[in-house]
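Session log. Operator J.P. requested a structure for one protein chain; no other inputs attached. Running the standard single-chain path with token output.
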Amino acid sequence: MVAPALPRPAMGGYAAAGLLAYIVISKYQHHLPLYRLETMSIQWGAQLSRKSMADWIRLVSDWVEPIYKLMLCELLAGHYLQCDETPVKFLDPDEKGHRAIQGYLWVVSTPGGDVVFDWRLTRRHGELTTLLTDDYAGLLQSDGYEAYASYAEVHPAVTWLGCWAHARRYFFEAQGDNPRITQAALRLIGRMYRREREWDEQNLTAEQRGLERAKPEGLARTMNSLKRLAVWARQRIRPKSPLGKACDYLLGQWAPLSAHLNHGVSRLDNNLVENAIRPSCIGKKNWLFIGHPDAGQRSAILYSLIVSCQRHGKGPAGLPQGHPHPAPSPDQSGRPAPAHPAPLAAQRVVVGLPLGAYCDVSMSTSETSLRYSAMPPS
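Structure written below.
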């Protein structure tokens, strides 16, 4: 008697779960393009075509999409978001000449929480409303891009917070223009960050930090000194000079920058979410562009899980704690059979690749629920 072959995640294919995880991690964590993986596979004695690997990436992204939706739902149910966006080129088969077009990965996160990437074809203001919905209420931190200001303006329950790292960068780059003024501004900003580090070391609560920031000897005094310096300098320098642009940015962003005084939970800058974007920026230097508009969201889903796993100190190749099965197996229809749902709901994003539970995620800011079924929705 011959024992039946072990079930494979891909119906009719030879790729085991470990190989699928290796390909996804190689591309989205180690930034290897598929053509390079194809070349490497020849050295292993098993040539893997780029088309097969692209199909497997699509399969894995379909498996983990319910987890991705839950991550986004939980972020929107919170009250503090950091946002940014980064351009990524893609190929549109309908475009004449098949030239590369610019799309965008929008990124939403919260300090210490998950990181969610979302693929959009444009950077228009309406894309942010589609991503965050009209129901979000809380703090929204970003750079000075007008889309975030517009979103906060039409949503009264949203408070826009600025990024002091961007304000500092303008003055840092203007040091050759007027060293005396720029160094004075940099010293004042540095004083603010030193205060924040001291409060971090004291493990202050958000409420305590808010009280410290608002004290006359706290950040309020330093911010006011910086504003007076910018107003004074702005009247004495060329508007288009580097220092003029630094002062214009600071004064133009003063409302969201000074809003930190009223919210002790916030961080002074958007560096955490910008650091989360960095892997995708390294990746696009290697694979240059996304091969199809539909593939953009697959990349967003897989970047979300890998970057979130790294932030939580979990290896993306690992399996969720207590998960009894190494990978889902396909049923006779070719669809992956569902994995056990309890660990996914309990562990949120602390999951591994690949997983295959199908579920519907109810997107609501008041309630998050998962409904698992034996089959994906038709």
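Operator note: The radius of gyration is 24 Å.
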